Amino acid sequence: MGHIYPTGDVKIESEERLQGVGEDGAAAGRNGVKTEERETKEEGLAEEVMPGIRMDNGGAGGDRIVVVKQEVLSFAEDISPMSPAKKVKIISEDDQKMHVFDSSVNTRDGLLPNGQHQNGDIATAPYNEVPPEIEHITQGYQPIGKLITRLAQETWKNLLEVIDAMSEMTVGQHQLNSTSSPTYLNNHINSNGANSSPVNIQKKMKLLNFAKHRRDQFIKVLVLTQWSRQAADVGKVIDLKVWLDGQARLYNDAGYWLGELKRNLSAAKVPNPDLKTALEVLSTGKASWLPDLGYILPEPLTPRQMLKELREINTLLHLRLNIHEHENLPPHFKTYTIASGRATFVVPEEFEVDVSIADEDPSSQLYFIDFRLLFSPSLSEIPVGKLRDEIEGKANDVLKKEGLAGCYNFLHDLVLTNKINVLRQQAKEMARGKWSETIRLETVRRSLVLQYWLRKPGGKSWVEIGLMSGKSRAKDGVLREDGPSRIGLRWFRDGKEVKNPPIVLQLGNLSMESILKHVIALHIKHILTSIRDKLIELPLYARQNLSLSLSTSTTEPVDSSLKAELTPSRSLVAAIEPIAGRFALQPPSPLFASFEAALIALNDPALDAHRRIAGLRCLVAQEEIESRARCSGWEPLKTFIPRSDDLKRIFPTREPPRLSLFRRKTWSSRWLVGVSIGMGGEEWWVIELYDVSCLPSGFRPSTHTTYSLESSISYTFGEYFRVPIASSNGKATNPSYEFFSRLEKAAAGIISFFVNSRYLSQKRIHHTLRASNAPSPFDSGVRVPLFFVRFSSLIRQNIANKKTPWALDVLKVTYQGLDSDGKVVIIVEAQMQKDKAIPQIKLVRETIDKDVAFNPHWGLFALRTRAEVGEPVMQNIVERLKRIERLIQFVGVVQRSNLPCERVSLGRIVFSYSSSPPLKADVGFVGDRPMTIDLDAGNPHLRIKDYLVDLLNSEGTSTYKDFEGGAVVNGGGGAGGGAERSGFYLVTKIMHLSLPLLLAIGEIESQHVIGEMYVLHRSADWLQISYRAPTTCKVEIKLRQRRDEYRWFVSLNKSQYPTTGAPAEENEKTRAVTVRFNQLFLDSGEGWMGLKTGISASRDGVAEVVRKIDDLMWKIGGGEGGRKAPEQIRAETTEAIEKRAEKKELVHKEKVEKVEKEKREGGKDAETKTAGSKDGQQTKHSVVVLDE
């Protein structure tokens, strides 16, 4: 489309629009339409686009819109130079002056008639004459009133159509009945639900759409009307641009004409001048010897006439091909286009041909115009010459005799033959290039045979490309036409034809190399796919233990390969070289090279290659396993070759596998590990060899073969077990160093379970061994069996006096690998009874010891023990269970007493029983030795430490029976039980109740001179304070239970009262003290109360009573002025205790570091160290943590 310019004089339209108007006009003339009607139609079509507007006095309101086509300005350029002059009149609005444009001037070739010039006569035009005005375009303008009229007419017509369509849309009877009758309100009809029917809604939508569309049209007219007010100025610019474009074309045509003139004159021969004729012509103006035929040349066609004629020809072609020739058109000529007076038939990937007519008679002959090939490589255009003349002549003859069908057959056969020749030439070039000595070309008539892989063993493979007739023979033997002839392909693979090969010939872009690559790619895909399908049936690949991936391409043979994983660390990539057809194995190695030669020698690799690859896989796996085992400390037994009977008994496989036996250097010589290697995978076994000289009872060696590993010892196969080891990713085992480490752990675990099972069977302890599919906690690649032991049967000697055991009757024993010393690590898991478990054990965290773990919520616990490979561990487990029972009792007491627990282990528990000052107790219990209590320096309970130790080991059976079943510390309710009657429970209660008293006594002692007073502890709950100045006074303090509450009772010793025979002065002092104490005993305070003969004080009130007694003694002696304030004394005491605790902690850390250093240097076992050093040791192995 051309550009649209807002002008006052012109509006330029595209050529297509003008052609559309002309074609319509021509068609109307041929069908007998009146000239006026055709003009009206052309005006309507021109108005539809509204290319431009200009206000003129001829329209409404004095303005008008004029539409001008671009072709009007370029008529002169398209007129042939030999045609006579044709003048086009253009009228200017300003002066109505007619300007004459001589269209006979050939502006394209730059030729001008003699004596003429576009701007006038050069000879006569004066230099001072004003040049002619620029052409002003006014032709084809239409008034704007006509546009508005036509728009109104169209709106009215469309409105009538909408009304008619709405009248045809009727409402059903059921819809009329369903709607309610209308109501009348203020003289208006209210239809209620009548408008809700779908038909009424469609009517309204149709009317609204019509109104919206017409409104848009009128808005466009309004915009055009406002825009046309500035069209006058723009029209002048357009006139100037048209003139400048014409001048530019003249300059370009001049250069083109000069070049054509030079090219035409190069081959011209100038004849000898005919002087006689020249003289006659120059003198008379004519030659007498030339005849005068009286021929009058027709006037040349104008561009408009040419366009009209072409449109008429197009119309005739349409009529002929759609009406007269429609039934006779060949199927491949159904696609055609008609333009420029010719019909173009297109056959994809073959050719396109142009034909036309010379007569309006439908029975007249069609004529060949042009012919073009639509495939590559081919000629882009048939050159002018003998070939083109031959094709044109033959095509016209066929069109005359056979019509379009014969023309198609002739050109179709010509193109197919040309394509076969192109492929033949490409094949010859390939045979001389990189495909030399690998392909062979044979030509048979209009077909070619190309054989490939000439040196490959087995059957031959080739491809045939030729013409197929397009006929097929039916069952009755009659030939049937299936279509025209075509280029076909047949593929023979290994001497056998492949039916319906998936090969699509690209006939639009011919390439013999691409076709051959396509065939070879399919051949390679067939071979590799067959190998893959047979390999994937083998167990290792079927279970996806080893990966097997196939990458194929149907166009590029080098992109096809088969990747087979031989071992997790080694893979094989098998590919086939496309030119020679030989196997290529990657990565290159001597082993792969030998197998590559074996694969190349196979006659049919699609059937036999998978066996060679399977054998290669087993060999590679065996070499890798033996090499890695030797580097990992295992000794391959190359000379130990078992007999077939023993192999069948130990390795029950169908096919004899590749067998390798290994022995660990640190193991006994009677334990071996064997592996059987096959396509079913690797199976690992633990084999026990019996010494023939010391066989077990009931074992008969006569039925077994003996072997000699050492010079003086003979062995025979005994017990054997399969090692349930698998890789961590679910694939085949990778014989890495880490794998052999896991293998050693798995084999040691099986040996350990076997030895423990044999021990329990001998002791008649109930147990069972179950397989486990879950990987072990320490290694996801090793699966070991589970061992279950009956708890009551294991510790029956420890629960003889008890009704039920404290744990559930099932112990789970699991194997956790080897430690750094090569010892077997065993984990025992159990759960306490619900009635024995301590509810909400918050003091016991997950790990209470390096070898013990707890789950506080569920009461689960686990312990770890170690033993030499082959040694039973059940005795050690029993001792550990007993210590756990004691620990649970202790932690229960701490938890019930709300005491913070700092450290917990199987031999030690450290808890804090005071925050100000910070005080803690360290209770140690190891084995059957007496329990101990360790207190920090400055701890007030150091006074009664010996009593506390005795109470701790008394287990509630000593003379402290007052505490049995007593009140709970800190005001709780009564809670009897075994834990409350234990010695540990009594110790915590005494320490809690006596803490304020002992702190107060410590403060008082610091205020007195040595010897003035002293404290005598008769037991943990009974002490005596003796004063020697100013007089002798003894105060008894005892702990007693009263009304479910423990209270301290303070009284004077009986010797405090006056006695006969004593000095009067002494009795006087004694009476003064007694009087003062009697007054104190009648008094009461916070936490204490006088009882006339003594004082009853609570845990916190007894400290205040002791201080009052000390104040009383100071007042009696008159020495109150030199004492320290109680707050200062307490602060200094607390600071001293904290410093001593920090010092002890520093000493403890030094001990821990020393123990760790000794352990690293091979010192004594950590369990022989002090209880304080145990908590500092760091475990080297993981411990099972039981989650909730």
UniProtKB/TrEMBL annotation:
Signal sequence, renumbered to the chain: none
Record-level GO cellular component terms: core mediator complex; mediator complex
Mediator complex subunit MED14 N-terminal domain: residues covered: 142-359
Principal location class: nucleus
GO biological process assignments: regulation of transcription by RNA polymerase II
Location(s), subcellular: Nucleus
Keyword Iron among UniProt keywords: no
Taxonomic superkingdom: Eukaryota
Region of interest (Disordered), ranges: 1-45, 1140-1188
Residue ranges, compositional bias (Basic and acidic residues): 33-44, 1140-1168
Functional note: Component of the Mediator complex, a coactivator involved in the regulated transcription of nearly all RNA polymerase II-dependent genes. Mediator functions as a bridge to convey information from gene-specific regulatory proteins to the basal RNA polymerase II transcription machinery. Mediator is recruited to promoters by direct interactions with regulatory proteins and serves as a scaffold for the assembly of a functional preinitiation complex with RNA polymerase II and the general transcription factors.
Subunit record text: Component of the Mediator complex.
Family classification: Belongs to the Mediator complex subunit 14 family.
Designated name of the protein: Mediator of RNA polymerase II transcription subunit 14
